Amino acid sequence: MKKILAVVSIALASFSLSLSFAQAANIKPGSACKKSGSTYTQSGIKYTCVSVNKKLTWKVLATTPSHSHTATPTPTASTPAATAPTASTVVAGGVLNTPDYAPSPPDGGSDDYRCFLLDPKFLSDTFLKAVTITPNNLEVSHHGILYKVDAANTAATKLVDSQSKEPGWSCFGDTGIPGATAFSPAAPSSWISFWAPGGDFKEYPANTGMKIKAGDQFILQSHFHLRSGAPQGASMKVALSLAPTGAKTSELKTLLIAAPIELACTSTEKGPLCTRDAALADLAKRTSKKASLQENTLLYICGKDPRNPVVSNTSECTSTLPSATAIYGVTGHMHQLGRTINVTYFNKATGASTTLSSRDLWDFDNQKTDWQSKPIQASQGDQIKVTCTYDVSLRSKLPEFRDLSPNYVVWGEGTRDEMCLAIINYTN
Do the domains 255-427 and 64-80+87-249 match in fold? Predict the structure, then answer.
């Protein structure tokens, strides 16, 4: 009798287990589930059980990342039911890898900008809570910027990608897709996160995240700078963490404030590139024609006369906020000749100013984000100003410039060029 009961018990258990697997195998968004917070991965799609109108239903959490034309993903395991996400839990979202690429700068240059299309395959709107970009070859990796390309522009992006025999495509100046510009917030690709020396991990403030809609994809713009004797192959890894499903999350956005740069050669420097026109022509040759036009564009945006640029070791630009804005964090960016960078907020109503970020001694290897202890509530008409100072004499002291002819310096994508950039993370 005991043997019969044992056999019956095993059979019932097997039937119950088979039924559970059968039910799980047929789950779909909106179908009923039993335990809030439980998760299940089916056909590469990750589901979580959530309460909607007092009913437990399955909702798509994420897909197991897989590559598009060029991305090589690393799948992540399902979150165990025992560690169901809570309001403060960050949910794993997956890892995307760019293919291994051997940088090949244009003639006369040492810098290569390469963009790679990465598809997270999200099937529902998702908030990124944290992004980590990790290069595998620090000898040639200068920085990486992760952009979002909306679903409506992915076909055009894939077409650009398909036209190159090598992995990815050349993208000096911006993402290189139709309609893209470096500084326009309305461009078809928008800034999500970035890696630069000392600033690889970006975890966004509590209750905020970068919104990614179903069908959106990523473009990773990778800046490679070749150095003599350095290993040539390079790739980057993008790790995504997601805000928990159902959590109240404000959409974090990015504002770029860039200042034009007009740095003359020092009195002791001589060379064919010490004239502005020659330097701009050289910039176009070793990067792109589009990149060489950015300096004059910035002069115009920042209220200066592109027809009469003024040489100065100080660069600055002020941006007026078009709407009420909560400022959460600021990151400054320059290249090797930078000395100081400051980002300041001005309250129009009170006349008060607040320092958002300050580097009294610029360190290229420490480009961290300065998150505010409390978000600054700015009003329409308030302003943010970025100010950078430079020391061109550093060229004679840095090994980076040892074999380079001195040049008149403007805003540019190459390591021998300069930037003055404030990256503002905010919500509306």
Answer: yes
Instruction: Answer yes or no: is pLDDT of 79 > 70.
Output: no
Q: How confident is the model at residue 328 (pLDDT cuts 50, 70, 90)?
A: very high
Summarize pLDDT for 228-269 with one digit per residue, the tens.
Answer: 655 578 999 999 999 888 889 999 999 999 999 999 999 999
Q: How far is CA 61 from CA 68, 222, 241, 366, in A?
A: 20, 28, 11, 35
Amino acid sitting at position 99: P
309: number of CA atoms within 13 Å, CB side?
Answer: 26
pTM, to two decimals: 0.74
What CA–CA distance (Å, rounded) separates 69 from 401? 37
Residue 238's nearest CA partner among 170, 144, 345 is 144
What are the Cα distances from residue 209, in Å, to 240, 365, 402? Answer: 11, 26, 43
According to CATH, the topology of domain 255-427 is: Jelly Rolls (2.60.120)
Instruction: Write phi, then psi, for 282 (nearest 5 degrees).
Output: -65, -40
The Cα angle at residue 92 between residues 91 and 93, in degrees rounded to 5: 110
User: What does the chain come to in residues?
Assistant: 428
d(CA 62, CA 244): 11
- Of 253-267, 328-342, 376-390, 395-409, the range with the lowest mean pLDDT is 395-409
Distances (CA, A) of 316 to 38, 141, 158: 52, 27, 37
- Residues paired with 96 in a beta bridge: 73, 238
Domain-by-domain residue ranges, the chain?
A: 27-63, 64-80+87-249, 255-427
Is beta strand 169-170 parallel, antiparallel or unpaired with respect to 111-118?
A: antiparallel
Strands 39-42 and 45-52: antiparallel
The CATH number given to 64-80+87-249 is 2.60.120.310
Within 10 angstroms of residue 122's Cβ, the number of other Cβ atoms is 23
